[in-house]
Amino acid sequence: MTDLFSMIDEAARAIAAKWPVRPRVGIILGTGLGNFAEQISADAKIPYHEIPHFPQSTAVGHKGQLVCGTLGGVPVVAMQGRFHLYEGYPAWQAALPVRVMRQLGIDLFVVSNASGGLNPRYRSGDIMVMDDHINLMGQNPLVGTHDERLGPMFPDMSAPYDKALIEQALEIARRENFAAHQGTYVALMGPNYETRAEYRFLRTIGGDAVGMSTVPEVIAAAQMGLRVLALSTITNMCLPDALRGSTGEEVVQLAKLAETKLSKIVRGIVAQEFGKST
Q1: What's the distance, CA 181 to chain centroid?
Q2: What is the pLDDT confidence band of residue 278, given thresholds at 50, 70 and 90?
Q3: Dihedrals φ, ψ of 188, to 5°?
């Protein structure tokens, strides 16, 4: 790996050359939320292949471009599609975009994903606001030679998800009358879905939902001191004694059904944090 900070700076400069605005919010539009980009008043849409050092998004339902513009008057930068470890990318590269967004100037990082429900109280289509995670990916984006410009070598992870943002998200869901839970996300590398025994194990160790993303980006965000809100759409229920098969296409379709709920939370959070109507 070449100098990471130089890669971050070069990517940020390339984006700023096309969109010379400081964003306040960085958003990763995960599975099922890609169409949220249409709600952004876009000034620029930059394909990933035009951004130095950005890998390509190959996952189902991930478009692969950076949308730069405003949401209710608030400057935002949003990723339509993310990078996963199961695509062959190392954790530091999966986390590269959030570092670039921080270099552009964001204060708030919002990330979404689709996940399998481990908690029997959940239902497909519910939203889980992540308040903690368990990293079982076997990788960490901070591994390597430390550069103090990126943050501390040993960042505190006791509360990587902002408590005030969690409460705001849950309140928006209550106000809009849809189910939203607060829970722990377990991250595995994938890309296969888990066995019944694995689902039992993940529930036993405290998992409420399981997925294949988000944690590398959140660890990098925590190192850089960003406020983080993470929203997980429960697509398929992963109850080992009543398990049915899952496919990537089905997960994408189920996630899309919850897009309106996620959109209301994201728009509400941006409005509350930056004092503008969305």
Answers
A1: 17
A2: very low
A3: -120, 160
pLDDT for 242 equals: 67
What is Dmax (Cα atoms) for the chain?
A: 54
**Residue 131 belongs to what H/E stretch?**
strand 127-135
Pick the CATH number of 4-274 from 3.90.1720.10, 3.40.50.2000, 3.40.50.1580, 3.40.50.10260: 3.40.50.1580
For tokens 């944090």, the residue is 273
DSSP reduced 3-state for 42: strand
Give Cα separations from 201 to 93, 136, 192, 242 (angstroms): 29, 12, 16, 16
Please check whether residue 213 is in contact with residue 141, taking contact to mean a CB–CB distance below 8 angstroms.
Answer: no
**Residue ranges in 19-63 assigned as alpha helix (H):** none
Distance of CA 31 to the CA centre of its chain: 9
Which helix (H) or strand (E) element contains residue 146? none
Domain ranges of the chain: 4-274
DSSP 127-189: EEEEEEEEE-SS--TT-SS--GGG--SS---S--S-HHHHHHHHHHHHHHT--EEEEEEEE--
Give yes or no for a contact between 101 and 8, defined as CB atoms under 8 angstroms apart: no
- Tell me the residue type at 52: P
- The yes-or-no verdict on residue 19 having pLDDT over 90 is yes
Instruction: Output the six-digit token pair for 90.
Output: 């190392």
User: What is the DSSP code string of 220-271?
Assistant: HHHHTT-EEEEEEEEEEE--GGG-----HHHHHHHHHHTHHHHHHHHHHHHH
Average pLDDT, the chain: 91
